[in-house]
Amino acid sequence: MNAIALLEKYFPGSNSFMIILEHSRLVATKALQTARNLDLDHPGVDLAFLVEAAFLHDIGVCRTEASKFHCHGTEPNIRHGIIGKEILEEEGFPRHALVCERHIGVGLSVADIRSQTLPLPEEEMTPQSVEEKIVCFADLFYSKSLENCVKEKTIAEVKQALRKFGENKVMIFDGWLKEFKYA
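Given the sequence above, the corresponding structure tokens read:
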């Protein structure tokens, strides 16, 4: 699979391609760094899949109204995960599709979707595999805005951003910090 070519297919010749590509490159680098922190607690992390999934996790943004990413689709940005899932399933990458669906924040539960009245199907969208968790974790450290995409957020900044969605989201992140040897 050529993840970059697939991104280019859905973001042809646009500013959004450069933003998504840079964001995805940073997420992939952080994901690899995170995977290297692991020891025998997580045997068999699929590094090739991890990098591909990190590059493709935001492919669904191409069909959303996300002007700060120079995307002018018709869907709200919160739907980019399930849109990405649909795209990657159509492209024949069902495992990568799950990463798209499950990478929003620290994952979205049915309770989250209901309580926030999100325009999403009422189903669990939380990362399950170690690769899904790592991509989700790495994504939290980088913005997709052009002016901030290369600046890595601090752990404190990530926690502050998650806190507005509930202390339980910070607790999940804290668990990942321990699991991935950052704490």
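The chain has one domain: 3-152. Try to locate this feature in the token string yourself.
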